[in-house]
């Protein structure tokens, strides 16, 4: 029975390919022998004509508009259910610029975040967008061309961008010996972050309990994270940052004064001033970006009353005339696909000059100072006040980010530069065996998936039957065992397999291309 059924399937495919239209006097071909086997199946005529009838049915599409909410940096799935598709194809189009993203399984974009998912036998054609960004927000349309026109369905993608802010002003003053207490609020996050990280200048301090640091985080619609530092000293002065996954960081500057008088506090403020063309300028934070504006007359008057102001003033002028130096040692940075890459550029005595980042493969200027010259929101320059390091951060790195980046500083004697080579590691998954796996009903399906070339071994590997995740289907005889390592191995076992277990099986892990295999379960 199984052999004849297989022959019937071959015959149907041959008919679609035109094999059935061969001349009567042609010599027998292998396909003719398969057709002869079909005649032995009693119900073959019914199956044959039923298949031909299905070919002539017009496709139908669920044209109900859908709203999809995805958090910045997460994965979005846009669904397009089509019945009776036949030999036609499903296309995805981005409406804001009418860009054709895909046709069938063929992609028409070089953005590797986009992928079409479709399981054999399924009516659903899913557009997957990894590491969604703000610019992905908008309407997408799936289309099917028919004899009567074009069928379409609209999917509206909404990107939720979590926001972080630290309660209080941009500056926080405490006396030495007291407790620094900062509260960070993260809101507008569909999935509340489980972890909020605090940094002092460029150093993460969440786990500095031995230094008097405690962090308490309460996840919720408005996640609240409280940083407390006991017995604060001058070494605790500086820039503090709170951030969570896929959230823009928030900053505050903390001053710790050692029993200073009013004059002492003014001196601390004066240190943050720069002498430019004979005037004081102060750094202010507006909308989370640094802006320069003249210091107020009142502040200048305060500084003039401090006996040490002249020394500070002339010291600042002297610093302005020093030539900058750059660590020009070339650096190699390895980042896993989908992770965050940090490219460092240490520059001393920068003064009023700016640091620029350039992508060498196309000589595209990415940034100058804190100003960005790219609309790719994954790129951001990180720089803490008082630090020599200018860091180019690239979120959700993709294959095309691989290559050399250069940071530059222009001086009177020419341009100083440093090269950073970014290498993107792309984990690979494959299922042992051929593309098809045949088992008898009642036996055990056993599949082994290997994930290699992953700098950070995945802790979880997910298995799907068609479009359904089955890792936790223990009640249905499913078990999954995963052993993380240089070559992570995940084994799927399904006891007492039946015809319902036939179909496409997929294994995948975070930031890894999935692997597929088709399983056939035959009854006898």
TrEMBL record:
Keyword set includes Signal: yes
Gene Ontology CC annotations of this record: neuron projection membrane
Pfam families, A to Z: I-set, Ig_3
Keyword entries, A-Z: Signal
Signal peptide extent: 1-21
Gene Ontology biological process terms in this record: synapse organization
PROSITE patterns given in the database record: IG_LIKE (PS50835)
Organism (species): Heliothis virescens (Tobacco budworm moth)
Domain Ig-like: 59-152, 162-253, 324-417, 427-518
SMART domains in UniProt: IG, IGc2, IGv
Protein name: Ig-like domain-containing protein
């Amino acid at each position: 029975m199984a052999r004849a059924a297989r022959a019937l399937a071959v015959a149907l495919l041959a008919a679609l390919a035109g094999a059935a239209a061969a001349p009567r006097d042609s010599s027998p071909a292998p396909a003719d022998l398969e057709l002869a086997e079909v005649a032995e199946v009693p119900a073959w005529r019914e199956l044959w004509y039923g298949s031909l009838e299905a070919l002539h049915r017009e496709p139908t599409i669920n044209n109900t508009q859908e709203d999809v909410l995805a958090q910045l940096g997460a994965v979005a799935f846009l669904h397009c259910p089509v019945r009776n598709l036949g030999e036609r194809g499903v296309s995805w189009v981005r409406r804001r610029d009418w860009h054709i993203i895909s046709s069938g399984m063929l992609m028409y974009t070089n953005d590797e975040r986009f992928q079409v998912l479709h399981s054999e036998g399924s009516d659903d054609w899913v557009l997957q967008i990894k590491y969604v960004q703000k610019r992905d927000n908008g309407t997408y349309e799936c289309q099917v061309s028919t004899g009567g026109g074009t069928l379409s369905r609209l999917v509206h993608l909404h990107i939720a961008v979590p926001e972080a802010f630290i309660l209080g002003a941009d500056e926080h003053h405490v006396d030495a010996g007291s407790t620094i207490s900062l509260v960070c609020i993260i809101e507008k996050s569909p999935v509340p972050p489980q972890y909020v990280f605090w940094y002092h200048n460029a150093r993460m301090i969440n786990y500095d309990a031995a230094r008097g640091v405690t962090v308490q985080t309460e996840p919720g619609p408005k996640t609240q994270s409280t940083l407390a530092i006991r017995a604060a000293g001058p070494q605790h002065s500086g820039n503090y940052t709170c951030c969570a996954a896929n959230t823009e960081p928030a900053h505050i500057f903390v001053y710790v004064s050692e029993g200073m008088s009013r004059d002492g506090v003014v001196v601390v403020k004066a240190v943050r001033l720069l002498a430019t063309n004979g005037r004081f300028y102060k750094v202010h934070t507006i909308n989370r970006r640094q802006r320069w504006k003249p210091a107020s007359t009142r502040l200048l008057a305060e500084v003039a009353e401090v006996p040490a102001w002249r020394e500070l003033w002339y010291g600042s002028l002297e610093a302005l005339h020093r030539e900058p130096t750059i660590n020009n040692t070339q650096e190699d940075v390895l980042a896993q696909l989908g992770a965050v890459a940090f490219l460092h550029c240490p520059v001393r005595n920068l003064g009023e000059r700016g640091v620029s980042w350039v992508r060498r493969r196309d000589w595209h200027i990415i940034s100058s100072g804190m100003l960005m010259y790219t609309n790719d929101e994954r790129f951001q320059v990180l720089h803490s006040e008082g630090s020599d390091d200018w860091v180019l951060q690239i979120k959700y790195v993709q294959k095309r980010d691989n290559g050399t980046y250069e940071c530059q500083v222009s001086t009177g004697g020419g341009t100083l530069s440093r090269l950073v080579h970014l290498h993107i590691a792309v984990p690979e998954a494959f299922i042992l065996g051929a593309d098809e796996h045949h088992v008898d009903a009642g036996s055990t399906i056993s599949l082994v998936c290997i994930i290699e070339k992953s700098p950070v071994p995945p802790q979880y590997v997910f298995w799907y039957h068609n479009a359904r995740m089955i890792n936790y289907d223990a009640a249905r005889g499913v078990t999954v065992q995963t052993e993380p390592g240089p070559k992570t191995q995940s084994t799927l076992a399904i006891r007492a397999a039946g015809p319902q277990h036939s179909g496409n099986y997929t294994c995948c892990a975070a930031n890894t291309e999935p692997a597929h295999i088709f399983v056939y379960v035959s009854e006898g």
